[in-house]
Amino acid sequence: MTDKTTNVQSGYFTQERIQGDLDYCRAQAIAKKMLDNGLISMTEFNKLNAINRETFSPLFAEIMPKIP
């Protein structure tokens, strides 16, 4: 079903999906800070990135670029 005022499928932006996106952003920010402070390597950061995508299922994971 499409909402006429927003032209967005109802049910797509559920509370769970939005919370998953927020949790993903927080986890990525922590991982980036760890990388910047030399606590983890780029390889470990990339592994965390993949795990975070699977765990939190951010809204637009399918179009996010993959980090080599």
From TrEMBL:
It holds the Pfam family SHOCT_2. Residues 14-64 form the SHOCT-like domain. InterPro entries: SHOCT_2 (IPR046749). This is SHOCT-like domain-containing protein. It comes from Faecalicatena fissicatena.
